[in-house]
Amino acid sequence: MANVIVVGTQWGDEGKGKVVDILSERFDVVARYQGGNNAGHTVVVGEEKIVLHLVPSGILRKGKTCILGNGVVIDPADLLYEMEQLRRLEAKFEGSFFIGKNAHLVMPYHKILDVERDKGQRKIGTTGRGIGPAYADKMARVGIRIGDLHNPDLFREKLFANLAEKRAHQPASSALLGLDPEKIYADYLGYYQELRPYLVDASLVLNQFIAEGKSVLFEGAQGTLLDVDMGTYPYVTSSSSTAGGACTGTGVSPLNIHGVLGVVKAYTTRVGEGPFPTELKDELGERLRIRGQEFGATTGRPRRCGWFDAVAVRYSTRVNALSTMALMKLDVLDECEKILICNGYRYRGQVIREFPTEAGILKECEPIYEEMKGWQEVTQGVLDYDELPKKCREYIERLEELIGVDFSLISTGPKRDQTIIRKTQTLKDWGLVD
Ligand code: GDP
Ligand code: IMO
Ligand code: MG
Fold first, then answer.
1. Which helix (H) or strand (E) segment is 112 a member of?
2. Which terminus of the chain is more exposed, N or C, with fewer CB under 10 A?
């Protein structure tokens, strides 16, 4: 069996949770490699809708191992809360859940800084979970890793020094001044006692699994266009959400990874600020939002909605070298009379076909659309590709043509079984279909 990375190809919320949940049935291990509880990955089991923020989306499958790699940032209070909720759904953690001890902690001061900075001209519209400041400390080499809690004196020293430094640069009105370092110290040592049984050297454990012939599914959070290097900087998250992040975020070599599956929505959404050329600011956008239930799984914010952007997704296929893709939320387009696909941008009188990563340029890009007729039939729950309406198949095939990658999975509803699985060569190569 293969080791495969699942990656978002747009601005997040493509349906990675559903895809990882489906595929995890056939894999032994699921590993998150970046991001933190800014992610919201939805899995629907039976009639129950479960949103996972930090715990990998394989947790609801019995007998699977789930790992948080060193590239993830962990808010320990939120992780413990999530684990408690999942235990109620009979998820099992003991012996099957591991946390990389080199993963950095999100501290209370990170959350305050995140919220207090995300204002005015520089507003990104973050999730307010402290993600940016936590990664900033990691890169500045003053971050606190979860394994550091093993040494209370060292932890205390780092905590007090960090807080003093951060307070020195804040106005007197900042909530940072109200934080009690003694309380943080005691709280975090308490979290450590609860999480300690799960701490491991994630790279060592994952490589041992791989050496034993076990298969690993790497679960990306966010999406390619939110990647700190490859995305629409500065309107991005602070981690490497592209396929490359799977290696640095887990300590598994690219030579041990056999492919990358990109997850893409049949249209586009974005939460927070930043350029979005195909955004529909009219009633049509509102209709997509309602039909697609496009409200953030983490913050509940309405997601901005728009047409499919083939320029952006082609860019994602390049930076991730996608082996194949999963096309999600096709059913949301069922009622549309016409469907537009963006296949180029007009920028200051010129036509461009390559995705510009400068936010300033992208903001000025006007989409060049091609139009297709909608199918206006119900596709929700269709399980056989040939049973999709002809116009719907034409839309799918046009997307494949424009992107240059095939869709191995086509999702026709939020539930596990509302999925068309095609016997593509890639799925055969990965041993997922006969
Ligand atoms: P993720 O962050 O990439 O895991 O995606 P989210 O969970 O944030 O958002 C995807 C949403 O779409 C969730 O509410 C899913 O239950 C839902 N969903 C996934 N696939 C489909 C689909 O094919 N059709 C519909 N209607 N909803 C879907
Ligand atoms: P999943 O894994 C969609 C967005 C935020 C904001 C920007 C930076 O569910 O696809 P951050 O809190 O990370 O510093 O916010 O990134 N963002 C997401 N948008 N889905 C996500 O995760 C996101 N995680 C962060 O809205 O614009
Ligand atoms: Mg999400």
1. helix 108-117
2. C
**CA-to-CA dists, residue 128 to 7, 104, 230, angstroms:** 23, 17, 22
Question: Given the structure tokens 């992208």, which residue do they identify?
Answer: 362
DSSP run (H or E) holding 393: helix 390-403
- Is 434 inside any structural domain? no
CATH number for 40? 3.90.170.10
CATH of the domain at 173: 1.10.300.10
Ligand 1 probe mutation, 23, 290, 329, most atoms within 8 A of CB: 329
pLDDT of 110-163, one tens digit each? Answer: 999 999 999 999 999 999 999 999 999 999 999 999 999 999 999 999 999 999
Q: Strand pairing partners for 371?
A: 340
Is residue 246 a contact partner of residue 56, using CB atoms and an 8 Å limit? no
String of DSSP letters for 56-94? -TTTTSTT-EEEE-TTBEE-HHHHHHHHHHHHHTT---T
Tokens of 40: 């919201």
- For residue 107, give both structure tokens: 């501290």
What atom in ligand 1 is closest to the CA of residue 412?
Answer: 23
The reply to whether 93 and 115 lie within a common domain is no
CA of 299 to the centre of ligand 2 (A): 10
**Neighbour count for residue 363 (Cβ, 10 Å):** 14
Q: What are phi and psi of 54, to 5 degrees?
A: -120, -40
**Residue positions annotated with a catalytic role:** 13, 41
Atom of ligand 1 nearest to the CA of 418: 23
Which residue range is the domain that position 181 belongs to? 104-197
Q: 413: which DSSP letter?
A: S
Both 249 and 394 in one domain: the answer is yes
The residue from 145, 166, 197 where one domain ends is: 197
Indicate which ligand has the atom closest to the C-alpha of 123.
Answer: 2
In whole angstroms, what is the distance from residue 25 CA to residue 140 CA? 39
- Our mutation pick for probing the ligand 2 site, out of 226, 239, 240, 269, counting the most ligand atoms within 8 A of Cβ, is 226
Which residues does residue 107 pair with via DSSP β-bridges, in sequence order?
Answer: none
Would the pTM count as exceeding 0.90? yes
Same domain, 305 and 247: yes
- Give residue-wise pLDDT tens across range 262-317: 999 999 999 999 999 999 999 999 999 999 999 998 889 999 999 999 999 999 99
Written as six digits, the tokens of 391 are 């116009």
